[in-house]
Write a structure and sequence with these properties.
Elements: H1 4-25, H2 32-39, H3 43-49, H4 53-74, H5 82-92, H6 99-109, H7 118-145, H8 154-174, H9 179-194
Helix pairs in contact: 1-2, 1-4, 4-7, 5-7, 5-9, 7-8, 8-9
Length: 217
């Protein structure tokens, strides 16, 4: 039997394989054989680690959200202004081509899972709560420094930013809007809601570089 640390590594490999299949075939194209083929493992071995495909997908959803949150929450540890934190946070949430788009596609493909899978539903609530709390902490910091003069309750602003970001990201994945235009819309709307001004040297567009080499968002 595999050692505990090797089990963790194997589970990670299986989830990475599942995400790769989701990205190339969509969630409707995911099955045990395709995950096994992508991971270079037998279906029987995968079932040693996970009960079924649904459990794999629920775990993939959780890890995708955790990775997203870790990168965003790291911004709060950096010595930059609340305005810069907010702009960079929104840039991370814009699905530019590359790793950000791939991560966003996995999250959106797995959205239906939260309606029928209790574990995924629980983590979806946690995901939303932590994103809202992150925006709220940035807004509160901006109010304290005088950078923001929010007319609305900070929690209401935070909820609206999460919802707007989720909605616009869909349009990037379908090609209706470009990532640059989405980021610009997010930044302009956010600054209007918090009563702030974009950081000097930024027009609210393209701060995510658009190269796809940035972190997940």
């Amino acid at each position: 039997m595999a050692r505990p640390k090797n089990q963790d590594q194997r589970r990670s490999e299986i989830l990475s394989a599942a995400k790769a299949v989701i990205h190339t075939r969509g969630v409707t194209g995911v099955n045990l054989k395709r995950i096994a083929d992508q991971a270079g493992l037998s279906s029987a071995l995968i079932l040693y680690y996970y009960a079924d495909v649904d459990e794999i997908l629920a775990a993939a959803y959780r890890t995708a959200t955790e990775e997203f949150l870790e990168k965003r929450e790291f911004l709060l540890t950096e010595a930059i202004s609340p305005t810069e934190q907010l702009q960079r946070c929104l840039a991370l949430g814009t699905p530019y081509p590359g790793t950000r788009e791939e991560a966003a596609r996995v999250l959106y493909e797995l959205q239906p899972l939260i309606l029928n899978n209790a574990d995924a539903a629980t983590w979806s609530r946690e995901f939303f709560s932590r994103q809202t709390a992150l925006f709220r902490s940035i807004i509160d910091a901006g109010v304290r420094t005088g950078e923001f003069r929010a007319a609305l309750d900070p929690n209401t602003v935070a909820i609206n930013l999460v919802a707007l970001e989720d909605g616009l990201a869909t349009h990037a994945l379908t090609g209706l809007m470009t990532p640059n235009s989405i980021e610009a819309t997010l930044v302009q709307t956010a600054m209007h809601m918090v009563g702030g001004s974009a950081a000097r040297g930024s027009d609210g567009a393209g701060t995510g570089t658009g190269t796809g080499t940035g972190t997940v968002g």
